[in-house]
């Protein structure tokens, strides 16, 4: 049981250090200052970040995909469709 606490302590320290390392990228994505994601799942970002950079060069994946861009593409009914899709009403 004591060994479990030691391993958990090491993992927590490692997660907090990873959170500090990714803080700048999280701030760029969300626009919120001082916010980070100190979670073990962020270690997958080490693998997925190069794949993301590669996909940025493919034009079909490099389009905006937020609610304003979807509404601009689909017209006035796009907002209703997006709301229905996100709420599970479809």
What does this molecule look like?
Helix content is 66%, strand content 0%. The chain has 90 residues and is mainly α. The chain contains four helices and no strands. The protein folds into two domains: 1-57, no CATH class; 58-90, no CATH class. The longest helix has 29 residues, at 2-30. This is PTS system, galactitol-specific IIC component. InterPro entries: EIIC-GAT, PTS_sugar-sp_permease. It is a multi-pass membrane protein. It is found in: Cell membrane.
Overview in brief:
Its main location: membrane. The chain has 90 residues and is mainly alpha-helical.
Please report the number of helical segments: 4
- What is the overall silhouette? elongated
Give the H and E element order.
HHHH
Structural class: mainly alpha
| Rg, nearest Å | 19 Å
Major β-sheet, in short? none
Number of structurally distinct domains: 2
Beta-strand percentage?
under 5%
- The end-to-end span amounts to 49 Å
Low-pLDDT sequence parts: none
Mean pLDDT: 78
Q: Could you tell me the number of beta strands?
A: 0
Protein name: PTS system, galactitol-specific IIC component
Subcellular location: Cell membrane
Pfam families: EIIC-GAT (PF03611)
Membrane topology: Multi-pass membrane protein
């Amino acid at each position: 049981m004591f060994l479990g606490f030691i391993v958990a302590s090491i993992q927590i320290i490692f997660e907090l250090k990873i959170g500090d390392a990714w803080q700048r990228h999280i701030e760029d994505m969300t626009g919120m200052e001082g916010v980070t994601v100190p979670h073990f799942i962020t270690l997958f970002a080490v693998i997925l970040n190069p794949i993301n950079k590669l996909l940025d060069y493919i034009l079909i994946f490099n389009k905006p995909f937020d609610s304003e861009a979807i509404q601009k593409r689909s017209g006035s009914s796009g907002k209703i469709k997006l709301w229905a899709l996100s709420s599970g009403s479809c």
